[in-house]
Structures are given as C-alpha cells and as structure tokens.
Amino acid sequence: MMYILAPSLLAADFNILGQQILETQRAGAEYLHIDVMDGIFVPSISFGMPLIKSIRGTSRQFFDVHLMIMNPEKYIKEFVECGADGITFHLEAADCAEKVIEDIHASGAEAGISIKPGTPVEAVYPYLDKIEMVLIMSVEPGFGGQTFMPKSYERIRQLRNYIDERKLPVKIEVDGGVGKKNVREIIDAGANVLVAGSAVFKKRSISDNTSQFMAAFKE
Ligand code: DX5
Ligand code: ZN
C-alpha cells in the first residue's frame, strides 16, 4: 500500500506559512491538510478561501480541504476555485450527502466524507461507491494538539475490511493526535492517509519530522 502524509496547516506558524509549507513538500509530504472551521459545526474558527488561494501559488501538494462547517454544499465551488484538490465534508453536517458529493465531483475535485468519533462507521457505507476517501476523526474535531482516541484503531480496521472485501478504491484518512509513536499502529489498522499537525509543525524541525513519517511509511 502507498502511504501519504498530510501535514495540517492549523499547527503552522502563519508568519512564515509559505516557507513551512515548502519544507513539508520538499521532505516528501504529498498532501497538505487544510482545516476550515466555522464556529458552528465546531467551536472554533480557523481560516478560509483567501488563505487557500494565496498558498496555491506556493505549493504543488494535493490540497486536502477538511470542511468542519455547516451547510458545506454552499461553498464547494468556491473552495475548488481557490485551489482545493479534494474536499472532505462531515456527514453530520450535510442534509443530503449525495448532493454534496455530486457537487464536489462536478467542480472537478475528489470527494471525501468525514465522521466524528461518535458516528458509527456503518454510516458511510452507503456512499463508498461514490467517494474517493473517508476521513475517520480520531479526536473530536475543532482543535489541534489533542490525544488520539484508541477506539479509532477498531474503527479503521472495520472500514478497511469492508472496503477491501468489496475491492473499493477508497482511501482511509485519519486525523487527530497522529504522531511518530502511533503511526505504525494506525497504518497496521488500515489507514493510508495520515494527517499530522502538532507532530509536523510544533517540535524541532519540520523537515526532520516529515522525513521521519516518510521513513515510518517504508518500514
Ligand atoms: C482537528 C483538525 C485536525 C488537527 C490535527 O479538528 O481536523 O486536522 O489540525 O492536529 P493534531 O495533529 O495536532 O492532532
Ligand atoms: Zn482536519
């Protein structure tokens, strides 16, 4: 299996954002995870279209936009125009997931569905033949720097088995509390796209942190 690291911008230093993004790209991170929060679906507010638009000129990475917002359908086209390559919305925030998926595809991006830790994995089954990715939240969405919930391993395994039994080409992304200590277990459970915020941006050098993930993927 191919593994992808998606550094989460939320943990970056916005004074030198462009530089930090390039550092992750040079060290091998193929995705950039971009958390959009509206203060309603989640308690906090992060950033939106203008930021994505300005970093689009800096990075060649796949822009993996994670919408933690209500009414995601309203903003799909605009996010894609700003540079999103993939849009993941929350199943809990969509009135009609089917329609959101259609809109994402019509805009030319890959579609992903995310579920919070309390939402049963089975809830995404009806959409698996229509999407490119499922994002399993391993913390309550809203903030970086939280601790990975161990029950997520079983949720990843359950989804991995279901997807493999049906030979579906759907990626499994995991987000929240991912670090060097649990990367191996998360991969072994069946995830192939790993989001990491604090573990990439908050300690020592971004290049070293990114390279260590790359090395762990090859073990
Ligand atoms: C949380 C966000 C995450 C967050 C992860 O709601 O979706 O992407 O930035 O941060 P860490 O890796 O620090 O848990
Ligand atoms: Zn996220």
From TrEMBL:
Reactions listed under catalytic activity: D-ribulose 5-phosphate = D-xylulose 5-phosphate
List of residues binding substrate: 8, 66, 142-145, 175-177, 197-198
Q: Which SUPFAM superfamilies match?
A: Ribulose-phoshate binding barrel
Say yes or no: keyword S-adenosyl-L-methionine present.
no
Origin: domain of life: Bacteria
Q: Where is the active site?
A: 35, 175
> Which pathway features in its UniProt record?
Carbohydrate degradation
Pfam families in alphabetical order: Ribul_P_3_epim
Any note on cofactor binding? Binds 1 divalent metal cation per subunit.
Record Gene3D superfamilies: Aldolase class I
Q: What is its EC number?
A: 5.1.3.1
Keyword field: Carbohydrate metabolism, Cobalt, Isomerase, Manganese, Metal-binding, Zinc
Q: State the Gene Ontology BP annotations.
A: pentose catabolic process; pentose-phosphate shunt
- Cofactor annotation: Zn(2+); Fe(2+); Mn(2+); a divalent metal cation
Q: What molecular functions are annotated in GO for this chain?
A: D-ribulose-phosphate 3-epimerase activity; metal ion binding
Which InterPro entries has this protein been placed in?
A: Aldolase_TIM (IPR013785), Ribul_P_3_epim (IPR026019), Ribul_P_3_epim-like (IPR000056), RibuloseP-bd_barrel (IPR011060)
Binding of a divalent metal cation occurs at 33, 35, 66, 175
Q: What class of enzyme is it?
A: isomerase
Q: Which NCBIfam families match?
A: PRK05581.1-4, rpe
Checking PANTHER family in the record gives:
RIBULOSE-5-PHOSPHATE-3-EPIMERASE (PTHR11749)
What family name appears in the similarity comment?
Answer: Belongs to the ribulose-phosphate 3-epimerase family.
- Indicate what this protein is called per its UniProt record: Ribulose-phosphate 3-epimerase
Q: Which gene encodes it?
A: rpe
